[in-house]
Amino acid sequence: MRKTFVTVAAAASAFLMLGTGVASAGVHGDYLGSGIAIRRSPVSGTIDGRGYPGQGECTTVAQKASDGYYWGYNRNDTTRVVGWSRGDYLSVDGRGC
């Protein structure tokens, strides 16, 4: 079975094109790099944790921030740390969460 991964930024763009404004349904995925920051707020918020491939994550909101990137509000499946990570470092596997 072939898996297709889409970044949160691409998924957020699709939601915005449909006119819903912000992605609000929980979408499961994973981290696309080692040590991805999980922040209290997008761009420069305090880092509360880090995400790593294989830990899994659930993104519930995606929004474009002041740096021009989409950021996903996510929960790390392994550590349960919750916060914002840049969308191009998060994948979406199509499963809900």
Describe the overall structure:
The protein is mainly beta. It has one helix and eight strands; from the N terminus they run E-H-E-E-E-E-E-E-E. It has one helix spanning about 10-15, and strands spanning about 5, 25-30, 35-40, 45-50, 55-65, 70-75, 80-85, 90. The strands form three sheets. It has a four-stranded antiparallel sheet. The protein has a two-stranded antiparallel ribbon with strand order 1-8. The radius of gyration is 12 Å and the shape is globular.
Features:
single chain, 97 residues, mainly beta, 1 helix, disordered N terminus
Element layout with pairings:
Layout: E1 6-7, H1 8-17, E2 27-29, E3 36-39, E4 47-51, E5 57-64, E6 70-76, E7 82-86, E8 91-92
Antiparallel strand pairs: 1-8, 2-5, 3-4, 5-6, 6-7
Largest sheet: 4 strands, antiparallel
Low-confidence stretches: 1-5, 13-23
Q: Number of DSSP helices? A: 1
Extended strand count: 8
Order of helices and strands: EHEEEEEEE
Cα Rg: 12 Å
Distance between the termini: 21 Å
Q: What is the SS-derived class?
A: mainly beta
- Residue share in helix: 10-25%
Q: Strand order across the biggest sheet?
A: 2-5-6-7
Short description:
With 97 residues, the chain is mostly beta strands.
